[in-house]
Specification:
alpha+beta, single chain, globular, 151 residues, Alpha-D-Glucose-1,6-Bisphosphate, Chain A, domain 4
């Protein structure tokens, strides 16, 4: 049975900068460092209609497994994307990411619906960990972008 999780993180940066970082595939390995490694990840910004197929290794230790992501909607003006994902034991991982401006910066919200059959509760715990682990590297990258500001 599918389960839904919603995680929200606040950033002391502009919504445009947070959006640019959150959708920057070149920064993704740094954001996921220590959580997972990816082989075959493209670069650039996420775009609507994009199909991404990678090999993912959990914690960089477990054997790499195929994982697929289809970006079914991406609206930079609204700072929102929606993807349908599967692989590595997951039947369906529906992810919607939104970035909204606040008085002190921006809020990034991940809304995820996970179906991994009997393993769904385990993947829900994993998703909470993964999306939480992205916060500190994003804070660091927003303060010290490797190639200048993200916008």
């Amino acid at each position: 049975m599918p389960r839904t999780i919603i995680l929200t993180h606040h950033y002391p940066a502009s919504a445009d900068d947070v959006w640019a970082l959150a959708t920057d595939l070149d920064s993704f390995p740094e954001v996921m460092k220590g959580v997972a490694t990816f082989t075959g990840l493209p670069g650039g910004q996420i775009a609507q209609g994009q199909k991404i197929s990678v090999q993912v290794s959990i914690l960089g230790i477990l054997p790499a497994q195929p994982y697929h992501m289809d970006v079914v909607e991406c609206d930079p003006a609204a700072r929102m994307f929606r993807s349908l994902e599967h692989g590595a034991g997951v039947k369906s991982w529906q992810h919607e990411l939104t970035v909204t401006p606040t008085e002190t910066g921006a809020t990034l919200t991940d809304h995820v619906i996970i179906n991994a059959g009997l393993l769904t509760p385990l993947f829900v715990l994993w998703a909470r960990y993964v999306y939480g682990a992205r916060h500190k590297p994003r804070l660091r990258l927003l303060q010290h972008p490797p190639n200048g500001p993200y916008v």
